Predict the 3D structure of the following.
Amino acid sequence: MSEILRIENLHKSFDDLEVLKGIDLTVQSGETVVILGSSGSGKSTMLRCVNFMESPTNGKIYLNGDLIGTERNGKMTYKEAELCTLRSRIGMVFQHFNLFPHMTVLENVLEGQVIVLGRAKMEARDKAMAQLERVGLAEKAFEYPSRLSGGQKQRVAIARALAMDPEVMLFDEVTSALDPELVGEVLKTMRQLAEEGMTMLCVTHELGFAYHVANRVLFLNEGIILEQGEPQSILKNPDTNRMREFLDGHSLFKLPD
Amino acid sequence: MEWNFLAVLRDFDLLILGLLNTLKVTGLALLFGVPLGLVLALSRLSTIRVLSGVAGFIVEFFRTTPPLVQLFWFFFALPILVDVRMTPLIAAVVTFSIQSSAFFAEIFRGGILSIDKGQWEGAKAIGMTYGQSLRRIILPQAVKRMIPAFMERSIELLKTTTLVSTVAYTDLMFQANELAQKTFRPLEVYTVVAVIYFVLIFVFSQASIWAEHRLAKSGEGTVR
């Protein structure tokens, strides 16, 4: 295993509000990292800083050993073109899918390949169909997103990200907007990706997914990583009271075994 | 009195000439006004303060002053201030391009702002630049929603161009005035002119409804 992503001393403030107060994280290639935390803990912001959907206030991010941006007088500066290239190398899936409604499923998966990567139409098409096959939606290629269920939309969004051949995939609460019975199909797709060796960072509330799929679980609290470890130990026996409270909150109304 | 349309119909070719000139002014004003409107809208949405401020001022200025005053200003005042002579056609096209661009800018701005922020994010996340996101993702969706307002404004523009008759441009209204004086049949002349405007605009709006329905077929639109 080799290092693919490194975050050093990441800080992010929105005006006066400091959301991230120094995050350090190294992710190995093929690792699945699940990020837990209550709302406002900074977990989504952290994920969005990795591909510069948000610009970090301070700190450094390395992808495959390359420092993103240029350091000048102790301050990082970023060129828009560099960030666009970076984003094309990192896949991101959102809570609300963000599919392009004026394009068919196939066109959604083609768009980035053709417009951003400049791939030839035929090659991009083959790739798109292969990715739709992978998420089990090849037969929906010519439908518009409005005709799909939430779970199917999310799987198309995953295929759209995968078609770019990303080095890392970011999942930002991707099952939070779904009907409970559609959550499973999306998590299954994600598990399949993890098993195929994709490097994944997932912000989620699905503790079961964290337990069964993650290699490592991070618990964010008030802008710092409060705890991290293997899911089997950290989810069963957290060190801190704060994380114990968090986990208890999730299992208040569990069905009896 | 008796209605007599014969005198009007005998010189109908005069009105046709006027109609063509009306269409010419309107068409040219649209040709320049729409892109200029987009530029103004994007400037106004820009995070660069100076740019959005200047664009905002232009838009407000041309929306709040009467088009007749603007036309007179470009035709009579500008040649005095700086050494540019304008033909009535050029003055009309300049005036109505800028004047309608102010309105189109607001239509574009509203259309762009009505698109969910997630669409920008989806485009950004696959590595698209601002320009690519706008061209490929945001505008195609925004334009669909803009069609009704856009058509409304174009019809308004077509009717506002009747003002060019005041600077002696031979548009439909100018020709109508001439013909009315020549034939002493103003009621008949203006009735025929009203019918011409009605037919023109009716065809125009039917075409826009057709376009709206066609666009609605692909994904989301204004009609279901």
